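[Protein data]
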Amino acid sequence: MELLLDYPWPGNIRELENAVVRAVAMCDGVIRVQDLPESIRNFPKQAAVQIQAGLASLSAPPQKEWLSLFEIEGRYVARVLAHTRGNKQAASRVLGVDRTTLQRMIKRHNISLDKISNPNQDGSASSL
């Protein structure tokens, strides 16, 4: 929480929203420091270096560290399906969408329900 409060948010509310969405997608139920974008995690270090160098403003975070909304959606849907052990009705309830919408999301993101409902098969569901 300290990192979020201390960060200057040069991108304003949109940057905060992206950081929170990313953290939620990357966490395992509890948001930790390592789930936050690198620019926020390293802010105290960056600020000290910039102050020493005499820089007046902070630079925007590099674009490559931000995941697209498409990637976040796919990961989140896969995590919810893994949590519900492939139960589409339960997953659609958690996601707040109807089953046909969930079915379209599964197809759009090429999510394999075999790997999700049988995680011991190759262990890949544990990495979601």
Observations:
- The radius of gyration is 18 Å.
- The chain has two domains: 2-61, 69-127.
